[in-house]
Amino acid sequence: MEKLSPLARRAHLIEAMKTDAAKGLHCGSCSGTCCTFTSNSMQIDSEQALDMKNWLLQQDRWNDETFKSLEDCVEEFRLDIEISHIKIRRTYTCPFFKRSSLGCTIAPEVKPYGCLAFNPKESGVTNGGNCRSNLDLLEAVPAAKDVTKYPIPVALLMLR
Question: Helices 46-58 & 6-22, crossing angle to 10 degrees?
């Protein structure tokens, strides 16, 4: 089976996001609550982490500054500590969030699938609230099911 490019694996998610945006359903006026510790518990698999690493390398951002940001996030939100034998998803502020509307510093073609599929259900959302993850779109991602996932900073540091 031919391995799809990062963009090809995300194409349907990006297209759905553009379609929603054309209907006024976009994150342009939002503060980015979904990227902060109040709402974010995004986890990615090794394939998504590798996509992000390769893109960060191309952008000259796979460096000590990024590693420090990732490490600080892991430490602040205790993402490397297991509370019990049960995997508990912890919330954290994404280290790639610049704290503004449309605040993600990662390009859509390598953004985590879950981030691309999480969008407003109504126009004019300013502080999160009426947003949702389109599970049907996520199910259509041509990726291995039941793979181990980690918070974004943990997954990226594993590739360091």
Answer: 90
